[in-house]
Design brief:
Elements lengths: L1 E5 L6 E6 L4 E5 L3 E4 L4 E5 L8 H9 L6 E5 L5 E5 L7 E14 L4 E5 L2 E7 L2 H5 L5 E14 L4 E13 L3 E5 L3 E6 L4 H6 L4 E14 L3 H11 L4
Antiparallel strand pairs: 1-2, 2-7, 3-6, 3-9, 4-7, 5-6, 8-11, 8-13, 9-11, 10-11, 12-15, 13-15, 14-15
Length: 226
Amino acid sequence: MNTTIECGPGCSTAHVAMAPGETCTSEAGAMIAMSGDMGIETTTKKRGGGGVLKAMKRMLAGESFFLNHFTAGQQGGELYLATTMPGDMMTYQLQAGESLIVQGGSYVACEEGVEIDLSWQGFKSFLSGERVFWLNLNGEGQVILSSFGAIYPIEIDGEHIVDTGHIVAFNETLDFTLTKAGKSWASSFLGGEGLVCKFRGRGTVWCQSHNAVGFGRTLGAKLRPR
């Protein structure tokens, strides 16, 4: 499939051009529009299969229970995808034997050759205020991801610190530990940064310019009670 990101970075959509018989798997509710002869199959796992356990695992990572599989007709087809939160989108080409760790809520769609599984990031993620379970995308094919705000890559060769609420995805070749942002715990929390992730190794971390949790807290405090 050939994907073009449009209307970015504030309100991005993904325009997916598909060859005849090609299939694109997306999270439930991501479709904006599609060709009239596009076939749709909804399952809890791979196309033509069940997989209730894997669907429940995806829910732990913040994704939908069901997946939609769009298959182009004899003349090919077009598919438009977007997410609920405003922001940017990106594509990534997974190679055989490669894995990409994705935060819950950032997965949008992928080609049929990509396997969607759960990644255990341990209690360090839980303590950071993020989900304990993230998605592990592996296999071979194109992946479409989304962010809250603009999305940008950080190339790491050694060490790099990233705020936990700004991580979209990272290569599995990277390891991370949870640590304080400043020299002391007091300065870290009083400065508003709190806990951060220190990545080690060689690979890429994709970050989002805005923090959805922080935005929700700010907006919630301004809403009047009903």
